[in-house]
Specification:
Blueprint: H1 2-21, E1 23-36, H2 38-44, E2 48-59, E3 64-88, E4 91-114, E5 122-143, E6 151-175, E7 183-194, E8 196-202, E9 218-224, E10 227-239, E11 243-244
Antiparallel strand pairs: 1-2, 1-10, 2-3, 3-4, 4-5, 5-6, 6-7, 7-10, 8-9, 10-11
Length: 246
């Protein structure tokens, strides 16, 4: 029994440093466009603009990476500037205010990437994605008495719902390092199915926001959150946890 135990300990001692030496880390940030599909497009009828960032881990020479991606987008935003008049006896005070209503989304996914280890300028890959989409409506009130120095007075959420999100992505990396893979430009398009959730949309027929009756310009909707997300960004690949690959 001593020999199997000895070889098992020896294997662990040798394989641990070897795996650590081969570990690759990919950090990235992308600009993304959110395009609603099907009934989600019918109910929302607006594009989302935002960005995402992620971390992927893999072993050098293998085609698979596993990691996490987080992102956010704004689909609708409307603001109104107005003056609040406060009368106190013989005195009248005029306060400049800005009222903002914004519909946004926060996305989080686990990512499994399959990417052939090609020593070439163009490097295609395929992603599997599973996570959530969080859609929310937030209103904010600012003090704008001082130009270019607005002060947040109030912020609250009117609607907040989460949907299951799953799908995949096709992409290609353009290697700026001439094939060594240290700095990459990313071109990617994700297709994400989504379960049904409740959300609010701004009524386009209402041109002016009334801070005292903001619910009058918000319409409740419900839809499955299927989306396409075209993306472009910059990726950095680190080898053996030491720095960008040579």
């Amino acid at each position: 029994m001593k020999h199997p135990l000895f070889f098992a300990l020896l294997f662990c001692m040798l394989s641990g440093p070897m795996l650590r030496a081969q570990l690759q880390v990919e950090l990235y940030g992308d600009f993304q466009l959110g395009i609603p599909l099907d009934e989600f497009d019918d109910k929302l009828n607006d594009l989302g603009f935002g960005g995402s960032g992620g971390l992927l881990l893999g072993l050098e020479g293998t085609p698979f990476q596993l990691g996490v991606e987080l992102g956010g987008m704004v689909f609708q935003r409307r603001s109104t500037d107005y003056t609040l008049v406060i009368e106190q006896g013989p005195f009248t005070e005029f306060l400049d205010r800005r009222f903002v209503v914004k519909n946004s989304a926060f996305l989080g996914h686990l990512v499994l990437r399959a990417k052939p280890p090609l020593d070439f300028v163009l490097q295609p890959y395929l992603d599997g994605m599973f996570g959530f989409k969080n859609f929310f409506t937030r209103i904010k009130l600012y003090d704008t008495q001082i130009p270019d120095d607005k002060i947040l007075l109030d912020s609250r959420s009117l609607e907040n719902d989460i949907a299951l999100s799953y799908g995949g992505a096709l992409g290609v990396h353009l290697d700026l390092s001439g094939g060594s893979g240290g700095i990459l430009i990313d071109f990617r398009c994700a297709f994400l199915f989504g379960s049904r959730l409740d959300f609010l949309v701004l009524d386009d027929s209402m041109e002016v926001l009334d801070p005292d009756n903001v619910e009058d310009v918000l319409i409740p909707r419900s839809a499955r959150t299927n989306m396409i997300l075209p993306q472009i960004g910059l990726h950095f690949l680190f080898d053996r946890m030491g720095g960008p690959e040579d």
